[in-house]
Amino acid sequence: MNQMKQSRLTKRRGVSASTKIEQMISDIIFKHVKDLVFIMQVEPGYQLRYLFANENGLLHAGMAVSDIGRTMDEVLPLNHLNPLKKQYIKAVNEGVEVVFHDEVDLDNDNQVLGETLLTPIKDEDGEVKYVVAVTRDITENFKEKID
Asked: Do 135 and 44 meet the contact criterion of CB atoms below 8 Å apart?
């Protein structure tokens, strides 16, 4: 086999292997990470578009897979949207991680205390293009501190 054909074949195998690894990582995060994970694309006018949400994120946010690709404004009710979006805008404007706490009412009338870390992802010009959100249930930790 000549060098050119071998080089193209190696590149294709590399892309294929890379794609498989990316899919595997996505599947692991989607199905097995207990924390709620969201990746949001920042658009003009502070529109935040869902690019990814893991299974727990979808469940606890009351979202469907079909909501991926929609904006936060299109998906969330106003009483959840406004305080949440304010935190995202802070992360975008300041370009730094933002941590906040929020109480979430679950369907079974239980309240859960969540701690969310928003991580802004910047492009090469320093402009925030994405925000990664990870929310962890800290209810038990909070109860232990009170007791």
From this structure: no
From CA 91, how far away is CA 106, in angstroms rounded?
26
Over the stretch 104-122, which tens digit does the pLDDT of each residue have? 665 556 677 899 999 999 9
Q: How far is CA 44 from the centre of its chain?
A: 19
Identify the residue with better confidence: 56 or 50: 50
What residue spans define the domains of the chain? Answer: 1-30, 33-146
Which CATH number is 33-146's, of 3.30.450.20, 3.60.20.30, 3.40.50.2300, 3.20.20.100? 3.30.450.20
- Which two three-digit tokens encode residue 15? 């892309």
- Position 117, amino acid: L
The rounded distance, in Å, linking the Cα atoms of 144 and 147 is 5
Tokens of 81: 């949207």
Longest alpha-carbon distance in the chain: 72
Q: What is the pLDDT of residues 10-26, one digit of tens each?
A: 455 555 777 877 677 66
Q: How far is CA 139 from CA 18, 48, 60, 113, in A?
A: 38, 28, 15, 5
The number of beta carbons lying within 10 Å of the beta carbon of residue 64 is 11
